[in-house]
Amino acid sequence: YFWDPNVAVPFGTVNHDHRKIVTYISHGLGDHVDSEGHGTHLAGSLVGDALVPSDLNLQRDAQMYNGMAPKAKLAFSDLQAGDGSNDLPVPPDLNALYFPEPWAAGARIRSDSWGGLSAAYTMEASEVDAFAWENREFLSIWAAGNEGYNGMYTIGTPATCKNCLSVGSSQSAPASFVQFGSVDAEVLLEPTTSLSEVQCMMQMALHGSRLAAR
After folding, report:
1. Edge-to-edge strand order for the sheet containing 139-143?
2. How far apart are the two ends of the chain, measured CA to CA in Å?
3. Predicted confidence (pLDDT) at residue 190 exceeds the cutoff of 70
4. Least confident of 47-56, 67-76, 99-108, 188-197
5. Peptide bond into 158 cis (omega under 30)
6. What are the residues facing 174 on neighbouring strands?
7. Radius of gyration of the chain (CA)
């Protein structure tokens, strides 16, 4: 879904010749590893585009699981270490240290599926607004959070900002999303990947989670 047989992933640089990944930016503990499959799943749901040049029949079948915008390209920001820890150190200033690099690489729509528990208008929320104000073509999409079952005032910062699209999901996910439960997998389809593996990787749980922001 992201693999390019001819162009290497542009880690720490920009290359518009890659068929899918324009740039891969590491922040904080980001180490190019997604042990949980969370960020890979989100990216695949958005822009994944199956490519299996060695088996066009498999490619056709795998494309049923393409993302919503399969011909779009991706500027990826890696925040978390792939060691299974829950540490997620974000840049101290989203406006100055987080948004500008993908913007400079050409990204205009940004999806972030992380956040805090506070429903207040925090400094992080104000930093999202500041970048959106200064860059009018920028659309920031944030997950509303995982606490909706607690009732009102459960949208977590930075989704509490004024200039973003905040997205949530209900507790009753479609059966197709929970058929395989939660799967830890890195959706980097190589020519040897089978269709059953693709189905297992793409049909992950969507039970009222931050994955809804995809």
Report:
1. 109-112, 139-143, 165-167
2. 16
3. no
4. 188-197
5. yes
6. none
7. 17
Tokens of 82: 């792939």
CA triplet 2, 95, 116: central angle to 5 degrees?
A: 75
The residues pairing with 77 across neighbouring beta strands, listed in sequence order, are 25
- Rounded to an integer, what distance in angstroms lies between the CA atom of residue 3 and that of residue 64? 17
How far is Cα 156 from Cα 147, in angstroms, rounded to an integer?
Answer: 8
Specify the pairing of strand 165-167 against strand 139-143. Answer: parallel
Tokens of residue 135, six digits: 């860059």
Instruction: Name the phi and psi angles at 142, rounded to 5.
Output: -125, 145
Q: Please state, in angstroms and rounded to a whole number, the distance separating the CA atoms of residues 66 and 76.
A: 17
Give the list of residues 6+ apart from residue 33 with CB closer than 8 angstroms, or none: 81, 82, 83
Q: Which range has the worst mean pLDDT, 13-27, 34-48, 168-182?
A: 168-182
SS3 111: strand
